[in-house]
UniProtKB/TrEMBL annotation:
This is FadR/GntR family transcriptional regulator. It comes from Streptomyces bikiniensis. SUPFAM superfamilies: GntR ligand-binding domain-like, Winged helix' DNA-binding domain. InterPro entries: GntR_C, TF_FadR/GntR_C, Tscrpt_reg_HTH_GntR, WH-like_DNA-bd_sf, WH_DNA-bd_sf. Residues 9-77 form the HTH gntR-type domain.
Amino acid sequence: MALRAAGRTSLVDSAVEQLRGQLADGEWAVGDRIPTEHELAQQLGVGRNTVREAVRVLVHSGLLESRQGNGTFVRSTADPAAVLHGVRHAGAADVLELRVALEAEAARLAAARRDTHDLLRLRAALTTLREEGDRDADADLAFHLAVVGATRNAAFVEVYRFFSAQVHEVLVEALGDREMPPVDIDAHEDLVAAIEAGDPEAAERQARELLREPMETVAALTERAR
C-alpha cells in the first residue's frame, strides 16, 4: 500500500495514522525493521522531524521499538489505542462481563499462589474499603488490584490496570454512580476468606457472586431503557 502525502495541518497526527494503517495492514511484520526516517519522510512527503515525532508516538504506544544504532522495529501490530476505543464504546453489560471474566480468573489464581504478604495486603485493602465507605471507587479498585497482584502474573496485572479504569468510566457514563448498588463489603470479605483458605474454586465462585448484583442491576436498567 502506497503512503499518501500528508497535508500541511496536523502533520504528525497524519503521519502517525498512516503508519498505524501500515502496521494494521501487515505492511511490516512483528520483528521487522521499518524504513529509515529519510525513506519514510520521502514516502509521506513530510520532514524528518515529523517522522521522528510520529515514530516516537508509536514507540510510546508499544507498537514500535527503537534500538540504539540498529533502527526501529515492529513490536506489535495490535494497536492498544484501538482496544481502548472499543472498550470505551462498549455497552455497560459487555464491560461487566469482561470484568467478571478477569476477576474470576484472578481470584482463582490468587487462591492458588498467594503468600503472607499478599494476604496482609488484601486485609489492609479490605479495611480501607470498610473505612472509606461502600461507594468509594478508588478503595474498591485498590482491593481488586490487590487480588490481581496475588496472581503473581505480571501480564495479568498490567492488563487489569489497563482495563479497570476504562470499566469504571464506561459504567459511570452509562449508568451514573447512584444507579449502581453499593459495594457489598461482606462479599469482599468472603472472597478474601476463600483466598486465605487456598481454595481456588471457592475464590472464583465468590468473585462471580460479588459481581452478580451489579450484573443484575445493569440488566434491569438496560431493559428499562428499551
